[in-house]
Structure formats: C-alpha cells, structure tokens
Amino acid sequence: MADVKITDLTAITSLDDDNDVIPVVDVSTDVTKKVTVDDLFDRPSGKGYKINNAVVINGTGLGTAIVNSSLTSVGTITTGVWNGTAIATANIADNAITPVKLEDNAVETARLRMML
After folding, report:
1. Higher-confidence residue: 111 or 49?
2. CA distance 55 to 49
3. What is the pTM assigned to this prediction?
4. How far apart (Å, rounded) are the C-alpha atoms in residues 95 and 91?
C-alpha cells in the first residue's frame, strides 16, 4: 500500500471498528503503517483525547484544560467542599432541612450552645 497515493484510495462510507484501518505514513522510515478505527475512538484505560497536547476528556472526566462546558446536570456529589457562593435562604425549601436530616443532630447541639 506504500506505493498508492492516499488520494487514490476508495473512501470509507461507514466504519467497522473491528476491521477497518487507517493508513499512516511513518515519514521517519518511509513506511506505511495502520491504525485501527477502534484504537482511535475506543481509548485504553488511562488514555484520553487531546487538543493542542492537553487532555480534554478521558474515561472518567473532563480534562483540567476544560474551563467551559455545556453540562446540564451532574450525578450525586457525595464528597467535597463547597467553594461557591453561599446559598441564600430564599433558595432553600422550608422542608429541606430538618434536625433529622442533619448529621449528629447538629441543630440540637447548636441550640444547646446558644442556650448556654
């Protein structure tokens, strides 16, 4: 295949991840090699997709170079520290916080401290 111009090759109209390959010319050795479609799109664990040599996405999340996105929701946040703007009381439903829902009866402890 090294003697065929890429422009002379037949175009692929659909991709078969298991069988289709993309020819790549290794200019340092003047040898045509192949990359499977699966290797391009199904990255192995620990590898991500890069733009301008910065990982933009991998198997577990967005890269640190991503500063804007169109995410409209996230899963349940189970740990972490809130570093955003304080949540105004008006944005918290009246029945959202009860002593039962607070860990270790924090409301009762706070009330006792206020009484002392």
Report:
1. 49
2. 6
3. 0.39
4. 12
